[in-house]
Design a protein that fits this description.
single chain; alpha/beta; Alpha-Beta Plaits; TIM Barrel; 15 strands; elongated; binds phosphoenolpyruvate; binds manganese (II) ion
Length: about 350
């Protein structure tokens, strides 16, 4: 349930409500809105608690939240969450572009891609150092060496970097290199991992599990939020369906659904959603038209030589082509392209 405080309520009244919630063995999450303060009651609340809270001074209304995910719901947090990465904001009117190779392969490949995507206007550099692969015999990433290369690319280009963490034991390590920590589709319901990234004071991007419903995805987000990390971005990356032409089926409808039921920013990954480079641009445009807050695009200097996901990777020329198509679509959707977030905090 959520407690909506009166616009005129004092800080003392807000604190008292939060205290009474905690005394009942529940958690209080205070969200300061423009007009009202809303206090989320997290845990299994009984109806007696609802009656008790209703009587406290400063309380306007106590409303049961119909959704099983509370902190992720728009009922609890009516205004959009805006995630900040250096001077880049994700979830406001700017559309952000994350681009880079599927996997960090070597320094030359990463730096060339970083320079290439930055020149085209990308805001964030992506690159996997720990790669979840379907077969154990595929290239599984450079691990620690890959993280160091990402740090070097950030230093040279000033671009913030995003990279995946696969194991709870690596969360601190990956977070010490990444500006955004990615939880991949295959780990969307790794609840121990979700708890650990929830303890970070750093943005996290949670990809949708390949066979997960929107509700399961939001409940996974709830794990991260419940640990106190509110700097959370969702990423739609396609789901498994009966169709085999594409690698996955991009669930475009998930984007406006998320915008409606949640306050979290949502970006789209047409690369993993389609598995085919020539489908990336049309689906990217469709995602922006549907209200996505950004895109994640795989780009490689030589896709035919890529160690992972070459078939869905764009060349620099193709990425440039996509970037030039984005602005008018963003504008038609009432958005603009974000200004590059290249300032790195010391
Ligand atoms: C990735 O973005 O590197 C990745 C592995 O994607 P997904 O988890 O969506 O399959
Ligand atoms: Mn990939």
């Amino acid at each position: 349930m959520i407690v909506v405080m009166k616009a005129s309520s004092s800080q003392d009244e807000i604190d008292r409500v939060a205290r009474r919630i905690e005394e009942s063995g529940l958690k209080a999450h205070i969200s300061q809105g423009v007009e009202h303060t809303i206090i989320g009651v997290v845990g299994q609340a009984l109806s007696e608690i609802r009656d008790m809270l209703q009587l406290l001074p400063g309380v306007d209304e106590v409303i049961p939240v119909s959704k099983p995910y509370k902190l992720a719901s728009r009922e609890f947090h009516p205004q959009n969450t805006v995630v900040k990465v250096n001077n880049l904001t994700i979830g406001d009117d700017g559309v952000i572009i994350i681009a880079g190779p599927c996997a960090v392969e070597n320094e030359e490949q990463l730096l060339a891609t970083a320079r290439g995507v930055k020149a085209c206007g990308a805001n964030v550099l992506r690159g996997g150092a720990f790669k979840p692969r379907t077969s154990p015999y595929y290239f599984r990433g450079l691990g620690m060496k890959g993280l160091e290369m990402l740090a070097k690319a950030r230093e040279e280009t000033g671009m913030p970097v995003i990279t995946e963490v696969m194991a709870p034991r690596d969360v601190e390590l990956v977070a010490s290199y990444a500006d955004i920590v990615q939880v991949g589709a295959r780990n969307m319901q790794n609840f121990i991992l979700l708890d650990e990234v929830g303890k970070l004071k750093k943005p996290v991007m949670l990809k949708r599990g390949m066979s997960s419903t929107i509700q399961e995805w939001l409940l996974a987000a709830e794990y991260i939020l419940a640990q106190g990390n509110e700097q959370l971005i969702l990423c739609e990356r396609g789901i498994r369906t009966f169709e085999t032409f594409t690698r996955n089926t991009m669930d475009i409808s998930a984007i406006p659904v998320i915008k409606r039921v949640s306050h979290l920013p949502v970006i789209a990954d047409p690369s993993h959603a389609t598995g085919k480079w020539y489908l990336v641009a049309p689906l990217a445009l469709a995602a922006i038209a549907a209200g996505a807050d950004g895109l994640m695009i795989e780009v490689h200097p030589n896709p035919d030589q890529a160690l992972a996901d070459g078939a869905q990777s764009l060349t620099f020329d193709n990425f440039q082509g996509l970037m030039s198509q984005l602005a008018p679509v963003a504008q038609a959707a009432g958005r603009k392209l974000a200004t590059p977030g290249t300032k790195v905090e010391p």
